[in-house]
Amino acid sequence: LYGGAITVNLPANLIDASDMRQVPDAQEVFLDRNSDMSIIFEILDRVEPADPDEAARFHFDSIAHDSSAQSSTVDDVRIPDEQRQAPPHTPKPILLEGVQQVAKFNRTQLDNVKIFLALYRLTELPHDIVFALNVPL
């Protein structure tokens, strides 16, 4: 991702959205070729809430705003006690699960979309890295 600055293992069935449409420089977007699921990585300026729970909710609300969600609900926010196989110096993710009602693909009918969000707050730089998995229900 981002010219090799970040590495991640992704399933082979994902398509790089930038091959089909313009994607902002701060984003990497992947689409599942067999479903409406998408994966988005974003490098953003660090948001003001210092509280991890509030910072994750801020980013979740930002996604809801950007996608013109009609409603959004946070089901859970947590920080895992341990990380399995995380590289050294990797910050612990703040994990959020929620649902947003969004009209996808220019339809008028609303879709329920489950959002799995992982927020990584960088300590050395004033940035947040947001990973969002969007799964239409």
Identify low-pLDDT runs: none
Q: Largest beta sheet, briefly? A: 7 strands, antiparallel
Sum up the overall morphology in one term.
globular
Q: How many strand segments?
A: 7
Estimated structural class: mainly beta
Percent range of helical residues:
10-25%
- Count of spatially separate domains: 1
Rg is 15 Å
Q: Approximately what portion of the residues adopt beta-strand conformation?
A: 35-45%
Q: Distance between termini?
A: 27 Å
What is the H/E string? EEEHEEEE
Number of alpha- plus pi-helical segments: 1
Q: For the residues shown, what is the average pLDDT?
A: 90
Write out the strand line-up for the largest beta sheet, numbering strands in chain order. Answer: 1-2-3-7-6-5-4
Pfam families: Mog1
InterPro entries: Mog1 (IPR007681), Mog1/PsbP_a/b/a-sand (IPR016123)
Organism: Serendipita vermifera MAFF 305830
Family: Belongs to the MOG1 family.
Q: Gist?
A:
The chain has 137 residues and is mainly beta.
What can you tell me about this protein's structure?
It is built from 1 helix and 7 strands; from the N terminus they run E-E-E-H-E-E-E-E. With 137 residues, the protein is mostly beta strands. A 7-stranded antiparallel β-sheet has the order 1-2-3-7-6-5-4, with helices on one face. The longest helix is centred in the middle third of the chain and has 15 residues, at 52-66. The mean pLDDT is 90. Residues 66-92 are annotated as: Disordered. Belongs to the MOG1 family. One of its GO terms (molecular function) is guanyl-nucleotide exchange factor activity. This is Ran guanine nucleotide release factor.
